[in-house]
Structure formats: structure tokens, C-alpha cells
Amino acid sequence: RCEQCRTLPVLGQLQYLKALHIEEMHMVTYIDDHLMGSGRGAIFQSLESLKFQYMTSLVKWEGLQANQMTRLRDLLITDCPNLSSLPRLSLLTSLEHLEMTN
Description:
Layout lengths: L18 E5 L6 E2 L1 H4 L12 E5 L6 E2 L12 E5 L18 E5 L1
Parallel strand pairs: 1-3, 2-4, 3-5, 5-6
């Protein structure tokens, strides 16, 4: 949680990260491949749960590729009222639960 941050740090190479909850980052307007990082191999290879909450300025999430988040089961996007663009969620082949509210 960082209410004044304008960008997210590079986190994609955290190979053992299972849950990522990003919330109340009101100055972030987009999420792109910068979050994923660069390099070879799977990105967020162990991530099972991803939540974006209370991000009032978030407009766009893009840059998701087929080899990323291959174990993601739960995706929650809540209270991101300006979000108007998402990546192709069909790339999340393990996704079991998708919740988008407000």
C-alpha cells in the first residue's frame, strides 16, 4: 500500500510468490509489462491469487502474455471505477474464480 506511488515495482521474477494484493494505490493509472519484469522463463510462476483493490485512478491493465501467471486461480478486481481495459483473460488458463465489482 502506497497512496502516492505512481508506478508499481517490478515483481514478476518473485518465483515463489503465491499471493499478491495491491490496494489503495490511488495514483497508479496503468499496469503493464513493467510489473512483470523482463527476462526469460515463466513470470509469476507460483502466483495463485491476485487482487487489485481500491485503485481509483487505474484505467488500464495490459501486457499479459501466455507464459505468465500460469497457476493463477483467483483474480479479484474491486473498487477500480475507472478501469476500462483488461488483458485477454483467456490467457489465464488456470483461472477458477474471477470477481470484478464496482
